[in-house]
Structures are given as structure tokens and as C-alpha cells.
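hey so i finally got around to running the thing on that chain from the lab meeting. sorry it took forever, my laptop kept dying and i had to restart like 3 times. anyway pasting the input first so we r on the same page abt which one it is
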Amino acid sequence: MESQLALVWPELRITRAANGIQALQCIDELAPDVVFLDIQMPGLNGIDLAARLCQGSNPPNVVFATAYDHYTLKAFENAAFDYLLKPIGLERLARTVARLKAALARPVAAPTLDVLTALLHHLGVTTPASASLQWIRAASGRETRLVAIDEVIYFQSNDKYTSVVLADGECLIRTPLSKLKEQLDGQQFWQIHRGVIVAAKHVAGTRTDFRGRLQVLLKGRTEPLIVSRNYIDQFKQM
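ok and heres what got predicted. didnt touch it at all, straight out
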């Protein structure tokens, strides 16, 4: 595909990545305007990578170039700019490049829900409920760690950051807790305090401390989490 891109977009600077994790690192470092993704990549597949990019404040234009035609819906759910099926004809690629150049020269707002629904309808697919967050890119010391949402025990506000507490330690993300809550599955993650959201599967039970405050006890951990009055009702059945 690189040779085809060189023909239809000779001024384009191309950087290759060997796998999904490396691609994510390159995107973080280079902040490209356009990303071409395959679906099946080792480490992190193209759909999950696109989902991560969508969460950024200024995501690149993502074009899928793949031999798999049954991921179209998931691709457009994650704001794909285009979806190219291999083998990709030069004329088809040239049309995509022309659209990309126009979009980069004249930025437009992201498609509205109605526009996206119409596009998916045209493709012959229906739109399910929006997917909840599956991965988090978090800072751990000098490293950036890709954390599966299933690994999280709880989230806690921490000054300008949000702490992500895991079984093997703690890392930080910049996403505020209020924004994070919108992306989480409410059945799996419970907000128990203005500054704390806990994974329901890690809740062992509750108790009342000597001050009369309700506390959440966690499986395999010693620290209790305070439940504020606004969130006590969800524990009345426990």
C-alpha cells in the first residue's frame, strides 16, 4: 500500500509500525493527521486502537485498509474516516486521499449521530447501544501503560489526575472522574463518592465505621472506601 500512497499522495510522510502497541506509541509521539490501520494486528487490533484514538481531544483521521469486510460497523462506531477493502484499487485510494486532503484543508465538525446513523443504514447495518470503555492508556512512572478496563479495582480523583488502582499498583490518567463515568458501564462500575468509582466485582461488602459512615470493603484489599450520602441508596440491599 505504501507504493500506492506514494503515487497518489507523494508529499505524504509515512511511518510504519510493526504492531498495534507500537502504532499507539508512534501516534502519541508524532501526532499524525492521518492513520491507516489494518484490523488484525498483534498486540492491539485496529478496532481497539481506533477506539483509543477517539477518546483524545484531537484524534487523527483513521482509514481502515483491511481484507475483512465484517468490521465495517465497528469501524464507523469508532469514527473511521473511510474503510478500504484489500486489494485496494488505485482509483479508490485516490478518492480517499482527495477527501482526506479536503478535510485537512478545511476542518469540519465530527459527524452528528443522525449523519452516522444514515451512513450505517446505507451500509445495511443497524446501530447498537454505544460501547463502554474497554482500554485506558495510563502513566506509570516514566512508562505509558495500556490497561484493560477489567483490571481496574477503582478510580479515585487525585488533584489534576485520576488514579487508576490495580491489583499490581497504581497509575494515572488525565481524564476527570465525571468524564470517565460517562464512558463506563454503570452495571460494572459504581460511583460511591464524588471522587471514587469502584468496580462492582471487587466489592466484598460494606460496614459502618465509628463515625457512622458507610464503607465499601474490597476483596483482597485492606483499604475501605467511604460512601458519601448521595450514593448510600444503592447499598441498602446489601
